[in-house]
């Protein structure tokens, strides 16, 4: 029963290990672009430009606002409808609708829409640059893991050879053919190689953890990469003229586009600042109405005595009085009209144009214009500096690729030479013509040449991909 349980657990462990996903370089880059915090921040910056564009377009729409107030008045107050002073308690309310529209403000609204579009393009280029930087960083870390794995494989393979040689030496020592010192030398070599293997295993694990952290993957133990199928793939970039690569970089690289858009933004800022020198013409429309529940006095004809006679004058020649008849009106208290009736009875409309001509504002406008012009000149200098920096960087990357290729070719030649020397030393050692120390030294040189070849290979691959990225090949389309 216990054996069955152990077998089940063993099968589960083997199955879980077999299901560990091995990430390819493209998968790592794609995952990083989707989850990296810096990329997410750049994406948020891009979203902010949408809000900027929305506000700029909204400047072409009229400003519409409504207001209302209600109050309870006690004591001597003015009736808001009749405008008569009354000593009473009454409720009153009023409402107003205001519409304003800017007809002309020195083309400021048009400039701000144009600026918002440029700002969006600049944010898009910043996002592209961030994605390129992250892709390159991921690729560098990925190749570092592959390099560490390749070095571990070299050390493990050579230690297997050492163990076989140690067993053979043991047999020769037991037969009295070789001295005991040769066996001790081989054992010392084996111990040193095992220590190097442990260090190489730690290097692999540390580089895997570093890559996982870059990708924001927390399951370090089950994280691994696909370490096969990666070789030197040259799309012909190393055969191109360096100035062709520099020209392509200036046309395609995001850092140049960002600097160019900064100049465009500064030019728009100058135009926007100058718009403050022009008059501003705006239109307005207002509608208001009032309501009150206060009773009021009105003059009405006395039904009991509708006509009264009054002296209206005297005939000068005769002194006779002139009598006239007049309606006999008396004040009468009446209640408030219905709410709906008062809304249209007491409403009012106002509309017109407003012209604001700037004359003097303490040189504020002039200062803003001068400040914007200085910023424009600064961004133009930054664009020129960005072009010079890119040219220098691309030229350095081109030289690095050439140097890395020579280093890789030299490492290949060195490996071939060290392999011949190792084979020769092994043959001499097997027949007893050389001692274990000389043989181990030859083996160490052979192992180091393999490790150096791995380093040169992946260093060349990385620098080659950097140059291709500057040439304009998208990060996700780089071939390894």
Automatic annotation (TrEMBL):
<protein>
    <submittedName>
        <fullName>TolC family protein</fullName>
    </submittedName>
</protein>
<dbReference type="InterPro" id="IPR051906">
    <property type="entry name" value="TolC-like"/>
</dbReference>
<keyword id="KW-0998">Cell outer membrane</keyword>
<dbReference type="GO" id="GO:0015288">
    <property type="term" value="F:porin activity"/>
</dbReference>
<keyword id="KW-1134">Transmembrane beta strand</keyword>
<dbReference type="GO" id="GO:0009279">
    <property type="term" value="C:cell outer membrane"/>
</dbReference>
<keyword id="KW-0175">Coiled coil</keyword>
<keyword id="KW-0813">Transport</keyword>
<feature type="coiled-coil region">
    <location>
        <begin position="369"/>
        <end position="396"/>
    </location>
</feature>
<dbReference type="GO" id="GO:1990281">
    <property type="term" value="C:efflux pump complex"/>
</dbReference>
<dbReference type="GO" id="GO:0015562">
    <property type="term" value="F:efflux transmembrane transporter activity"/>
</dbReference>
<dbReference type="InterPro" id="IPR003423">
    <property type="entry name" value="OMP_efflux"/>
</dbReference>
<comment type="similarity">
    <text>Belongs to the outer membrane factor (OMF) (TC 1.B.17) family.</text>
</comment>
<dbReference type="Pfam" id="PF02321">
    <property type="entry name" value="OEP"/>
</dbReference>
<keyword id="KW-0812">Transmembrane</keyword>
<keyword id="KW-0472">Membrane</keyword>
<feature type="signal peptide">
    <location>
        <begin position="1"/>
        <end position="18"/>
    </location>
</feature>
<keyword id="KW-0732">Signal</keyword>
């Amino acid at each position: 029963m216990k054996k069955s349980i152990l077998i089940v657990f063993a099968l589960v462990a083997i199955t879980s290990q077999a299901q560990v996903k091995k990430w390819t370089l493209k998968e790592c880059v794609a995952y990083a672009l989707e989850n990296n915090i810096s990329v997410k921040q750049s994406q948020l910056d891009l979203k902010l430009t949408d809000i900027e564009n929305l506000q700029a377009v909204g400047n072409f729409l009229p400003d519409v606002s409504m207001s209302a107030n209600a109050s309870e008045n006690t004591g001597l107050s003015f009736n808001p409808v009749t405008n008569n002073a009354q000593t009473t308690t009454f409720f009153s309310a009023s409402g107003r609708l205001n519409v304003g529209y800017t007809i002309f403000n020195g083309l400021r609204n048009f400039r701000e829409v144009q600026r918002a579009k440029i700002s969006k393009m600049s944010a898009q280029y910043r996002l592209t640059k961030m994605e390129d930087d992250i892709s390159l960083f991921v690729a560098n870390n990925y190749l570092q893991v592959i390099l560490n794995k390749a070095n571990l494989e070299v050390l493990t393979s050579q230690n297997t050879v050492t163990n076989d040689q140690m067993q053979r030496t043991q047999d020769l020592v037991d037969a009295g053919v070789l001295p005991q010192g040769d066996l001790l030398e081989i054992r010392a070599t084996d111990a040193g190689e095992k220590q190097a293997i442990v260090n190489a295993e730690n290097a692999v694990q540390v580089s895997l953890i570093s890559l996982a952290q870059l990708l924001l993957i927390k399951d370090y133990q089950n994280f691994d990469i696909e370490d096969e199928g990666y070789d030197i793939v040259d799309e012909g970039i190393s055969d191109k003229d360096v100035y062709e690569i520099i020209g392509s970089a200036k046309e395609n690289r995001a850092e140049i586009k960002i600097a160019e858009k900064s100049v465009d933004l500064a030019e728009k800022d100058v135009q926007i600042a100058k718009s403050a020198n022009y008059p501003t013409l705006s239109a307005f429309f207002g509608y208001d109405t009032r309501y009150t529940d206060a009773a009021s006095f009105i003059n009405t004809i006395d039904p009991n005595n509708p006509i009264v006679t009054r002296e209206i004058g005297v005939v000068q020649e005769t002194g006779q009085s002139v009598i006239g008849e007049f309606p006999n009106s008396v004040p009468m208290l009446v209640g408030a009209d219905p709410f709906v009736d008062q809304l249209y009875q007491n409403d009012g409309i106002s509309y017109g144009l407003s012209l604001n001509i700037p004359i003097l504002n303490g040189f504020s406008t002039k200062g803003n214009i001068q400040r914007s012009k200085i910023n424009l000149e600064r961004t133009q200098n930054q664009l020129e500096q960005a072009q010079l920096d890119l040219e220098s960087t691309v030229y350095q990357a081109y030289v690095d690729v050439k140097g890395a290729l020579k280093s890789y070719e030299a490492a290949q030649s060195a490996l071939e030479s060290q392999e011949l020397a190792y084979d020769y030393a092994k043959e001499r050692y097997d027949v007893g013509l050389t001692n274990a120390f000389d043989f181990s030294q030859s083996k160490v040189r052979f192992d180091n040449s393999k490790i150096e070849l791995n380093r040169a290979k992946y260093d060349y691959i990385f620098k080659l991909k950097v140059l291709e990225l500057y040439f304009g090949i998208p990060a996700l389309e780089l071939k390894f």
